[in-house]
Model the fold of this input.
Amino acid sequence: MEYKTTLNLPKTDFPMKADLPAREPVWLAQWEAAGLYQAIQESRRDAEAFILHDGPPYANGDIHIGHALNKILKDLILRYKTMQGYRTPYVPGWDCHGMPIEHQLFKELKQTKQQIEQQHGQVEFRQKARAYAERYVGIQREQFQRLGILGDWAQPYLTMAPAYELTILKTFLELLKAGYIYRGKKPVHWCATCETALAEAEVEYEDRKDTSIYVKFPVVRPPKVRAEFFKQPVAVVAWTTTPWTLPANVALCFHPQAEYVLLEGPPHLLVASELAERFTALLNTVNVRRVGTITGKELEGLRCQTPFSDRESVAVTDDSVSLDEGTGVVHIAPGHGQEDYLIGQRYKLPTLSPVDHQGRFTREVPQQFAGQLVFEANQAIIDDLRMRGLLLKEEPITHSYPHCWRCKKPVIFRATPQWFLSVEQQDLRSRLLGSARKVKWIPETGISRMTGMLETRPDWCLSRQRYWGSPIPILHCAACGKPVGKGEQIDAQVVERILKTLEARGAEAWFTMPAEELGAGTACPDCGGTALRKDPDILDVWFDSGVSHEAVLRQRPELAWPATMYLEGSDQHRGWFQVSLITSTALRGSAPYTHVLTHGFVMDGEGRKMSKSEGNVVSPQDVMKQYGADILRLWVASCDYREDVRISPPILEQVAEIYRKIRNTFRYLLANLQDFDPARDRQLASAMPELDRWALHRAQALLEEVTKSYEDYQFHQAARALYHYCVVELSSCYLDALKDRLYTEAAGSPARRCAQTVLYAILHALARLTAPVLSLTADEVWQLMRAKGLADEPSVHMARWPADIVPAAERDADLLARWEQFLSVRDEVMKALEAQRAAGVIGSPLEARVTLVTPDARLQRTWDGHRADLAEACVVSDLAVQLGSGAAGPAGLSQVIVERAPGTKCQRCWKFQSSVGANAAHPQLCARCAGVIATMASR
Done:
């Protein structure tokens, strides 16, 4: 008789080879055809909502690995919350305006901004930009869906949609009415390459090499006090790292409490006393006589000659002056720096900015510099100072310098008339801080980062000198140039009339209709002029996304304000999180979110930033072609997103191996439940062997650990727990121990059905615990379970999160403690078996008889009472326990004796048993196996 045919061998249609790149698109198509997202939302229609508001990516190219990290994290959270019973609508969105789209379109058209101005009208270019954004919305939508992201992809929100554009303008009007919007000439970050103002969020800091210089400012008029101090010629020495800003100098700033010293000349040089020794060493001079000292406060009102004009540079004071480097004297150019501007406003200094929109000096500077790019003029300025004897020292410096986020070129501070949103109006700054402190930040460090930025942030520059974006709906008088209004107050009624026109004809009408038609009946209150012109600027693209809480959360009926969560990269503390907070707090009094979760950036395997030039870019498209989306999802879940995360081919290979082991666990569970009917075969836990009850308790512990990890948004801990459970607790322990019972016991025997009941419970839980991460694989498992009657819901993603596997009333702490000790014994047994196998005493563990020796009588009694359980757990043919002498070692053992098991090998179960040969009909079988065969024959 072929005894192999009598075994209950595993059988399943779940393939060992996942072939995810080929199979996943099939599953995704089935989800779409079945309307899975809509079905999930309908099934939770009346449930409590968990609203995760999607931060819109730019529609300007294929998605990158950072996009994948972000969208998968969102999907993971929403799938978990759905299974917990929440209603979780997800409306994806796209940022369709602004520099990112313009920049990419310029590259595609191979044209510059100037060429666009010459060859295309703004309207034609906007049409091209709209078509470009539409194209990439479609491309990115497919790529995001390929990641297994569920959402309302048919009805996303687009910042260029007519209704959204109108909400942008209406929100601008509300802020204008509330007094937050004003026009002013203030220094802003300016990209000369892109020819536009930039917001704080559009600036990146990179190290840059420049030349720092020490410049003499000859004193032409002493201060009102201490006139005798200046009887001899004196020059104040200022240190600067931006020589090109010297033509705009209007003041020199001293620390009011600092002491300044005159160093003997001629002329005498005035520097901070704390820095004098370092300064003289820099000039290679020693033993310079100190003529006298004076405080910064006493110097206030001093007048010096500026290097490049007939203006006088006035001495002012401020506590911000550093005494750590330089000379303790700061050259002030209010048109070229935020701090300089604030000091200038306090002292009513002129705001000079002799630099045009292309970063070139205007004719307001000496003729030899006019027309030069400011950075290129640095050396010419230094040479001129040297020639005129005003340069004391120059030296190279590497410092962190602001760069444009799009073109990566260094930016300048430039004062030009711009539209601003005040963060001081109506005490907005302190209100923002209050709003931020009411939000739960994940990780917790987010609150200090946000409040630190809010405490020092300047007013928000809303103007952009670009083509593709939402208009600033303000009309100017063509005669006097002022915005239509009384004095500094913009006429909101004119703006309201404009918006009514745009509401009827679309925001694009702003660019096609004449100004006089938009402002019909409007005259300038200041000069009476009726000739009008439209404001040429567009709104900062961050304003577009920063009002999404108004345009999306308050407009879509399935959503709500405030959102439960905003989730983006950590750079969005100064980007989307902050601008959304500003507009929401200004208009609604609180943040548009109750939780904010931030993640780090994606680096290569060595922790380096990805770049095409380095050849270390990993694209999600390539990963999915090679491995599939579930591998990428598992990588995301395995990362501690709170820090920068790493990805590389070796890392992905490791993730794929982890996936393979988890998949094999599913395959084993399914294969051993092929004849199990829960309604018919399920056994009570109270009737189960202890090994099975321990397995249920361990599954319960896994459920609690994974649930807590999801609740704490610590997905890497959940992923690690699931992997350890599948590989160590299941495959290497429980499933290995069960093989004899599952394969050799009679199919319907209580012993086998107990084991299957546990496997069923584990499978049912494991499919759901992994569903947020391995969304496609878990549903593949679920469909096979449904086909076998092991699951009811149409998809695992419509199922509820597992309830308790072991009810609280049935939990047995003594059993867990006992089996924790048993498993320690098992570890020692496995080591001893391996040693004897290597020595050739045994082949497989089933050839062994193990004797446990302990000097502890209590342990000896416990082990002896569970010899069958221990033998099954250790997968040996026989196990004995002895009370012995000697010191107790690991697990309380003094010795583990391994010898060949007595008896003969059963040809069906492969155990060595003395009962083999006792049955005449089946002389090659042990008594148990012969009994099983007899039972099968009688049916």
Remarks:
- The chain has a mean pLDDT of 94.
- The first helix runs from residue 20 to 34.
- The chain has 31 helices and 33 strands.
- The longest strand covers residues 203-221.
